[in-house]
Amino acid sequence: MRVLVDTNVILDVLCNRKEFVADSLRVFRCCELRQITGWISALSVPNIVYIMRRELDPERIREILRTLTMVFSVAELCQSDLLKAAELPFGDYEDAIQSACAARIHADWIVTRNGKDFAHSPVPAISPAELFGQL
To answer: Are the CB atoms for 10 and 118 separated by under 8 Å?
Structure first.
């Protein structure tokens, strides 16, 4: 199974978001153990650093990047992703980019806590908890 993991799931783990961390950490572990093939969009990396910027020094940024690239494959952003995203009926262009990227890498699912934001996605979105029902 191939999944694109949305930025919010990554941030659940990195920021230790109490109410979400258990399921999101389980997604990390399944990807780390190669029980599922986990991808993140290249767009997620600068977004993560930006959101966490007050908590990160350069060494911590390098550590996070090493961890993310060990656990997940990183799907580069292509011109086609940007153009496709602009055509998708999304309210949020960033979510549309994630969706276009997931479609290009042939993901089975987008794993996110914001499933409603992906209602028009060509790749269906499920929560981390719902993912385990698919395994």
So the answer is: no
